[in-house]
């Protein structure tokens, strides 16, 4: 039991660090920056508020949240579609994206900060890649083959 708990924690932390690193690199890249921070396309409120974010606590919180994603994967693994760790990981990453990032993009960035929907879609595309990485890493560490896995 103790080893399983540690495995859940470190798989979540590793998945969180790696996926956040990839997302950070992508979001800080000149092409993405030039799209998301173009004043002709982006909302004034987004441009005013987002530079004031405290990134360290935000990133730390998302990395810690990845431990919860890892724990949920361990609970739901048998019901997640796929017979391999890759298929389960991709499905899990898509689930993380759908339940967390889509909500956040819609509620915070589109509804509150008035970010245009096309820019939300750019962000969601990048976030999907990060979610796939997170799901794959979690699945790689926690996947257990069973006879009843489809």
Overall description:
- It is a single chain.
- The protein has helices at 2-27, 30-36, 44-49, 55-76, 85-112, 117-142.
- The protein has 150 residues and is an all-alpha fold.
- It has one domain (2-142).
- Helix 1 (2-27) runs antiparallel to helix 6 (117-142).
- The longest helix is centred in the middle third of the chain and has 28 residues, at 85-112.
- 24% of the residues are buried.
Secondary structure blueprint with pairings:
Blueprint: H1 2-27, H2 30-36, H3 44-49, H4 55-76, H5 85-112, H6 117-142
Helix pairs in contact: 1-4, 1-6, 4-6, 5-6
Shape: elongated
Classify the beta-strand content into a percent band: under 5%
The overall strand count is 0
First-to-last CA distance: 26 Å
Summarize the structure.
The chain has about 150 residues and is mainly alpha-helical. Helices cover about 75% and strands about 0% of the residues. The protein contains 6 helices and no strands.
Keywords for this entry:
150 residues, mainly alpha, 6 helices
């Amino acid at each position: 039991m103790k080893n399983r708990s540690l495995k859940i924690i470190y798989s979540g932390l590793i998945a969180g660090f790696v996926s956040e690193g990839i997302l950070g690199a992508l979001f800080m890249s000149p092409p993405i920056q030039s799209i998301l921070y173009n004043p002709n396309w982006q909302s004034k409120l987004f441009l005013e508020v987002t530079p004031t974010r405290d990134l360290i606590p935000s990133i730390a919180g998302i990395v810690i949240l990845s431990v919860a994603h890892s724990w949920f994967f361990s609970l739901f693994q048998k019901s997640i579609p796929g017979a391999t760790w890759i298929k389960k990981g991709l499905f899990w990453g898509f689930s993380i994206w759908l339940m967390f990032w889509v909500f956040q993009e819609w509620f915070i960035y589109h509804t509150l900060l008035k970010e245009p929907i096309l820019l939300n879609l750019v962000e969601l595309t990048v976030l999907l890649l990060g979610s796939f990485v997170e799901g794959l890493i979690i699945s790689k560490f926690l996947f257990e083959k069973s006879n009843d896995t489809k």
